[in-house]
Amino acid sequence: MNDDATFVGIGRPPTDRRQVAVKLLWIGIWLAFMSAPVKDLLDGNHTPWATALGALGLVVFVGTYLVLVFRHTSKALDRRRVGTTIAFLGALAVALSLTLGTPWLVLFVYVSVTVGATLPLRTAGWLIPAVTAVLVGIGLTGDHPREIITALVVPALLGGFAMTGVRQMIRTTIELREARATVAQLAANEERLRLARDLHDLLGHSLSLITLKSELAGRMLPDHPEQAALQVADIEQVSRQALVDVRSAVTGYRRPTLPGELAGARTALAAAGITADVPADLPADVPEQPEEVLAWALREAVTNVVRHSGARRCTVALAPRQTLGGRVLELTVADDGRGTSGTKPGNGLTGITERLATVHGTMTTRPTDARSGKGFTLTLSVPLGSGLGSWE
User: Fold this and answer.
1) Could you tell me the CA-to-CA distances from 81 to 151, 229, 371 in Å, in that order?
2) Which uninterrupted H or E stretch holds 223?
3) pLDDT digits (tens, 9 = 90+) for 65-83
């Protein structure tokens, strides 16, 4: 799969030129309504000086609008600077509308949209109607067609309040992402504390016993070497048992499980803005080694989807299946991203193949959509023993 992302997630600032271009494209689509003042300038209805100043004013207006909406839709606001800039946009819209005529009244729609995109809901709630009222007032004072004024009132109100909703959604998404990061950090801290407690419980008694027996052996050594040798033998036995306990504990911490990886996949996909369809229920009594192999594979597959696929949806399926060779547990991870595009398998797929070989499992890959070649579907199968009849 490719390494670059094709879209900017909601509430995420662009990280490269391509994402900047995508965001500018989405914002710039709404500049189509600027066709009215542009046409007015091109029609030659004004003097050369008025045309030149009008063109300059339009360029300044559009540039200021793009900077405000691009930079401040999802960021914390410097209210004084943003308020001053919006006031400048309003004054420029008033000046251009009064001097150049009806086609320039559309600038108030963009002022309203800017208010909704950058200011808090409480402020925008009264300022958007105020901007619309100025639009109507200027329209009624001059010789402007009433139908044009009426046609602009709805876009001004609807565009402004729609942008307040968009901005609120973006800020909520950012807060949710930050909350997920905080929860993940707290979970990691809790895991460290649990590991510290478990190691203390495992080693505290053993090390204390080793210390006591070492002191006892040291006191016995000059006069009772045989008893000292018995204490040293006990020290060796306790040390070996402590080593076994530590290895067992560390192995348990390092071994991934399917429930844990499924939960992690659900969280990772949601954080990346990918719609996730991940099962909540698991088959019972999955053997330890096949479960570990599939858990590692699921982690790698979801990482590839998040980092490389550019997908908008990912489906994970896990179910037992009867084949001619016996019962297998089958894991499928399918996305609707770009697909492999002829690239060679990376280290992740190679690692999955090597792990599957240890349990005699198999791996197949194919495009999710056979016609277009888009998407990537990874299917893993691991054989199961005969003691899993309860899965029927």
Assistant:
1) 31, 82, 52
2) none
3) 888 776 655 455 567 888 8
